[in-house]
């Protein structure tokens, strides 16, 4: 005989859960009590959106569902920001929400929401458990749904009274992953298409990758001299200094890579949906009928043919597909080897940071210093904003599981993701990039980093405005500034107030010693980088955008 709260925790233990993020609430006190008797790390957060983003980051870096628990009503709606990220980014996650007791439902009781109506758009499956004896069934299904096909978030609502009720229920068992192997004929078909191609390109994206499949695809690309691009914010899927790497297909794509994709006669789209941002508004590959011969590999059959009609659609996860490529070898030296070399050189030129710019602090030399002085296995996190361009364009990712950033373009993600990444990998350096607007979306999770002694280094790029919106505003409504200016706190002093290390950096030459002091402090750190508002992009100033030059 077990309480519903104990059954929830039993199911988490059976599925190998090692950590959860939460903001506590009275609606699920019985679960918190049951967690007291386990070895599961409970990371107590300061806002439910940050807690959900931490769970997303754990799912993103491990491939296992990140677990988050929040209370009903306001707690649940706060957490919806993290749900939306996990949904658009195909990240496995399970959100447990406390719910009003069963007898009070449908009366708009205190903090009541009908989650099946509210969250269906941002979750793969939303359910409410009415019978505590069925908790093992529901939780097992939640793990299966979150990880199968196209991964994503699952929401389970827990009425308060089922968590205290004592019942007899079967012992929970672990979810069994479902492989999706490509057919031998499909692999052979890919080989025939490659043999006929003159200008092929591979684009890697999505989730359900592993270190082994990343290495396996690198070997496949080497055998076929295949140029490889990574989709938006999936740059950790291929070593950027490998001679086959061609760049990232994302916001502000290298024009040379954009042309190469448009002019390709064969595109191998592996793992991702290739949605609006990576496809430059669905212009690099035409929808629904691509100009290029398209091989689309995706673990969810509902995504195949949804936007692009592929010549060869393959329902398989990247892991399973790459494992089947081992025996596929070219009949002779590939004809496009020189084209691949040229594409990599174009990437190297595009990703070399500029040396100057407006003001006394220049992000180009700062990025160059980071490239020389931060370990290859360092994890970089960020949210959304023009500041992220410096990281995405000029940092050369070398290893798998070194990037956590939302393809959904959600602000506020970087700081909670950095906390989660450092909790997951305490031995690795974790660097968070944030804008002044982005940081204050979930900057309170810096307190969580201090509480758990997680020495992340956060670079707050402060230009005193919502930079991306100002850029578009000056382009479309020149000189008519409205609702984009910001008044900010002293971010360095804020770090100290939280119990961390903080410094303000106003000149380029002061960055390196400040970073080293932050690293040596052994505490969570914020370096506030005072960037001239004119330095809105690496290539154009705000004044140039305003004047149309």
Question: How does this structure look, described?
Answer:
- It contains 21 helices and 20 strands.
- With 549 residues, it is an alpha/beta fold.
- It has 3 domains: 2-167, Rossmann fold (3-Layer(aba) Sandwich); 184-349, TPP-binding domain (Rossmann fold), CATH 3.40.50.1220; 352-547, Thiamin diphosphate (ThDP)-binding fold, Pyr/PP domains (Rossmann fold), CATH 3.40.50.
- The strands form 4 sheets. Strands 3-2-4-5-7-6 form a 6-stranded parallel beta sheet, sandwiched between helices. A 6-stranded parallel beta sheet has the order 11-10-9-12-13-14, sandwiched between helices.
Topology at a glance:
Blueprint: E1 2-3, H1 4-14, E2 19-22, H2 29-35, E3 41-44, H3 48-62, E4 66-70, H4 74-89, E5 93-99, H5 115-118, E6 125-128, H6 135-147, E7 153-159, H7 160-164, E8 166-167, H8 184-196, E9 200-204, H9 211-224, E10 228-231, E11 245-249, H10 255-263, E12 266-270, E13 293-298, E14 312-315, H11 318-324, H12 337-350, H13 363-373, E15 379-382, H14 388-394, E16 403-404, H15 414-424, E17 430-435, H16 436-442, H17 446-451, E18 457-462, H18 467-476, H19 491-498, E19 501-505, H20 511-521, E20 525-530, H21 542-547
Parallel strand pairs: 2-3, 2-4, 4-5, 5-7, 6-7, 9-10, 9-12, 10-11, 12-13, 13-14, 15-16, 15-17, 17-18, 18-20, 19-20
Antiparallel strand pairs: 1-8
Helix pairs in contact: 1-2, 1-6, 3-4, 3-15, 9-11
Key attributes of the depicted protein:
six-stranded parallel beta sheet, 549 residues, globular, Rossmann fold, 17% strand, 21 helices, 37% helix, 3 domains, alpha/beta
